[in-house]
Design a protein that fits this description.
This protein has 5 helices and 14 strands. The protein is α+β, with helices and mostly antiparallel strands. It is globular. The protein starts with 15 loop residues before the first helix and ends with a strand. The mean pLDDT is 88.
Length: 295
């Protein structure tokens, strides 16, 4: 009922966080539904998932400076007593990435927010979701040209063409490039849902599905790595790498504000609801990533 507060209480592991993330559309439920005032709410939008791969910190500056490892030569070897020791090589290049802003707003009326209990909270949550969804896209695709973030694909990362290889083979070759050239351990694969579909439907000659029975959800994993299905990455391109070699520096988390000072909104009983955030992305080791083309 309006004016009441509901608390979610339970022991650790009982699902409190999952319930709240599902209500805010940060996660999607495998079954069931969300109902508000006896109305079913269908969130036909993709979950925020790419950003969950990225370690996050905070910053109070308008730009972040960091050292990108550009040379790594491991010359370590066994030596005999009195002989010269092998010389290794490490080189770091200072990089600077500007904090960028992602924002969105929608209009609403005083009556809409007053007549429908909790509508304001729902709208604010959805606007915040829109901002984080766009951040998801920018982490992968931002070209660095103001006001865009410089995303992972904008960096000098490695590339693996699918060519005539089956898609799983091409992905594994990209993973090996991350290990051999990037001296890193890949911990995720990002693919468009339409590119994951043929893999999920792979079957043997006698019709047995390799990635699990159609009656089961099936493992969204490939060669031991979790697969993130997201429309943030373009079709026919996949990405794998060690996402721990990145950092999302947040200058301002998602901030939602409401005002009637826009244009003639005050005299028309209209409100502008705005959500925005500011962040920059650091990629410490571009060779720790490899894109797969032609999938």
């Amino acid at each position: 009922p309006a004016g009441t507060v509901t608390a979610v209480i339970g022991p650790s592991g009982s699902g409190k966080t999952t319930v709240l993330r599902t209500l805010n559309a940060l996660d999607q439920a495998d079954a069931g539904m969300i109902r508000i005032d006896d109305l079913s709410v269908d969130f036909a939008t993709r979950p925020i998932r790419v950003v969950d791969l990225i370690p996050q910190t905070t910053t109070n500056a308008a730009a972040i400076s960091y050292m990108e490892e550009t040379t790594f030569t491991n010359a370590a070897a066994e030596v005999t007593e009195g002989s010269a020791k092998p010389e290794a090589a490490l080189a770091f290049t200072e990089r600077t990435d500007t904090v960028r802003k992602i924002a969105v707003w929608i209009p609403a009326t005083d009556e809409q927010l007053a007549d429908v209990p909790r509508l304001r909270g729902i709208v604010e949550n959805r606007l915040g979701f829109m901002v984080r969804q766009r951040l998801d896209y920018q982490i992968i695709n931002g070209d660095g040209t103001a006001p865009n973030i410089s995303g992972i694909l904008d960096r000098a990362i490695q590339s693996q063409a699918k060519g005539s290889d089956p898609t799983p083979d091409a992905i594994y070759k990209a993973m090996q490039k991350v290990r051999v050239v990037g001296f890193s351990e890949p911990n995720g694969v990002v693919m468009h849902p339409n590119d994951w579909t043929p893999i999920r439907l792979l079957s043997t000659a006698d019709g047995v599905y390799i990635w699990g029975s159609p009656s089961d959800a099936g493992p969204e994993r490939i060669f031991g790595l979790p697969v993130v299905q997201t429309q943030a990455i373009a079709e026919n391109t996949a990405l794998t790498g060690d996402f721990n070699q990145t950092e999302l520096a947040v200058r301002q988390g998602v901030d939602v504000q409401v005002s009637n000072s826009h244009d003639d909104y005050f005299v028309k009983n209209l409100l502008a609801i705005r959500a925005e955030m500011r962040a920059a992305l650091a990629v410490y080791r571009p060779d720790a990533f490899c894109k797969i083309t032609g999938v």
